[in-house]
Amino acid sequence: MRFLHTADWQIGTQFGGFSAEEAVHLTEARFDTVREIARLATQRQVDAVLVAGDVFDQQTVSNTVIRKLFGALDAFAGPWFFLPGNHDAALTESVWKRAQRLNCIPPQARVVLEPGVILVDALALALVCAPLTQRNTYDDTTSFFDHAESPPGYFRVGLAHGSVTGVLPASIDSANPIAADRAARARLDYLALGDWHGVKMIDARTWYSGTPEPDRFRNNQPGCVLDVTLRAPGEPAKVEPFRVGQYTWHDRSATLTVASDLDELKKTLASLTRRDVLKLRIDGAATLTEAEALQHLLEATGAQVRALRADSHALQVLPTADELSTLGAQGGYLAAVVSRLRSLQDDPLASRTATDALMLLAQFQRDARAAG
After folding, report:
1. Would you state the pLDDT for residue 328?
2. Which residue, 8, 88, 278, 323, is the most exposed by fewest CB within 10 angstroms?
3. pLDDT reported for residue 271
4. DSSP assignment string, 164-206
């Protein structure tokens, strides 16, 4: 049999660190990616799509969002299996219960609200499922997999959401633990996991698919689904990551020391497009002219990429003697203002404001000379 393994769609994510215009595009991209998954499932003629938790980012998404999500499944008429994760746990009152009341879950989609084994006889598949029924658990919800029965000759596939103990970073493996050897102990042909937002192989039969649409600045191979082929029960799985994400997220930094550093940064940013989301940290030191050129570069880059988060607070702006002269800061009140602003640049609490003030002063002086 052949299926797509995906997880962590995080529908309803709030992109608070971005402008309202940027957030609209990033939000819509998540629905576009679901449509792409459905299209890919049909194109590759898979038997099913397994979604290993966190379909929704929060329980409080609107009814419109719920309807829109299930409407995005139309391009694949085969079976979808949805597992509640920690963000959309199968609580007594949950986003899944609302979806049921809205009657918007298509007939080919099945939401797994209780742990157990689902038999899909047409595929000779025993799907062993461990939905989360609360946001955080401290017992391994997949423990029953070891003793779960399945008919002879059926594929045994596990579906779970959580943190594989001792494999993922310690900062995230305290809740919803999953034993690292669960696939072997439970005689699984494949264990489809969600929670980690990048593609990650735990062992040959245990994989995280990651989020299909990136939402964090981490270089852990997000933006994919896994195309999984099982030739016969007990044989190794063939797993192929396939990129479906709409945007690529970049986390970059630059240190400006000499004038050519700004030219190199400009060349680097020139390769980015509307398919990119960029976080950029800039430090070092620059002249007033270079700082103004950097500001213009960041404005141009913001119009070039889908979304930009730029931080240049650690950049020191050090006007040259010629620049100070141009400011008219040789003496008098203006010289005192410039001197005070330069001294404030050494104060971590006032540095950014002082730098912005210097740049504004330079612009005002240029405008005054042009008008005079």
Report:
1. 65
2. 323
3. 94
4. ETTTS-TTT-SSSEE-TTHHHHTT-SEEEEESSSS-EEEETTE
Helix (H, G, I), strand (E, B) or coil at 228: strand
Say what angle helices 63-71 and 95-102 make with each other, to 10 degrees.
70
Partners of residue 308 on adjacent β-strands? 278
User: Residue 358: which region, alpha, beta or left (left: phi > 0; alpha: psi -120 to 50)?
Assistant: alpha
Closest CA to 41 of 49, 31, 50: 49
How far is CA 77 from each of CA 46, 71, 125, rounded to the nearest angstrom? 11, 12, 18
Does the predicted TM-score (pTM) go above 0.70?
yes
Strands 248-256 and 276-286: parallel
Strands (E) in 199-306, as ranges, are 200-203, 206-208, 224-229, 238-243, 248-256, 276-286
Q: What is the C-alpha separation between 30 and 275, in angstroms, rounded? A: 13
Question: Which among 268, 249, 322 is positioned nearest to 290, based on CA atoms?
Answer: 322
Element (H, E) at 97: helix 95-102
User: pLDDT, tens digit, for every residue of 94-113?
Assistant: 999 999 999 999 999 999 99
Strand order in the sheet with 307-317: 248-256, 276-286, 307-317
Q: ∠ CA 216-221-223 to the nearest 5 degrees?
A: 70
Question: Span 294-300, mean pLDDT?
Answer: 94
Count of other CB atoms within 10 angstroms of residue 157: 30
